[in-house]
């Protein structure tokens, strides 16, 4: 099936001078066997290293397997009521 013009993966986030937070990473399940999300993250890292000062990529909360494959480190989340 040819699907020209339709993304296999998508990510969006917020950035500052030296970090990128990516709370949204989505893939088209039809292509999941090709790991389009992992490819997108790896290529994003390569681009950021070569073209920006960004050196921190935060893939946000969650314990998805791909995050650990990329070297994730667990952090505690805190909630405060003010």
Would you give an account of this structure?
This protein is an alpha+beta fold and 82 residues long. The chain is 26% helix and 23% strand. The N and C termini lie far apart (53 Å). The model has no long low-confidence stretch (mean pLDDT 91). The chain has helices at residues 36-51, 65-69; strands at 9-15, 19-27, 56-58. It has a 3-stranded mixed sheet with strand order 1-2-3, covered by helices on one side. The longest helix has 16 residues, at 36-51.
What's the mean pLDDT score? 91
Gap from first CA to last CA: 53 Å
Order of helices and strands: EEHEH
Question: Number of DSSP helices?
Answer: 2
Structural class: alpha+beta
Write out the strand line-up for the largest beta sheet, numbering strands in chain order.
Answer: 1-2-3
Helicity level, as a percent range?
A: 25-40%
Give the tally of β-strands: 3
Main sheet attributes: strand count, strand direction, barrel closure: 3 strands, mixed
Low-confidence stretches: none
Please state the overall shape, judged from the principal axes of the Cα atoms: globular
Proportion of strand residues: 15-25%
What value does the Rg take, in angstroms? 15 Å
How would you concisely characterize the structure shown here?
It is built from two helices and three strands; from the N terminus they run ββαβα.
Which SSEs are present, and which pair or pack?
Elements: E1 9-15, E2 19-27, H1 36-51, E3 56-58, H2 65-69
Parallel strand pairs: 2-3
Antiparallel strand pairs: 1-2
Q: What labels describe this entry?
A:
82 residues, 3 strands, 3-stranded mixed beta sheet, alpha+beta
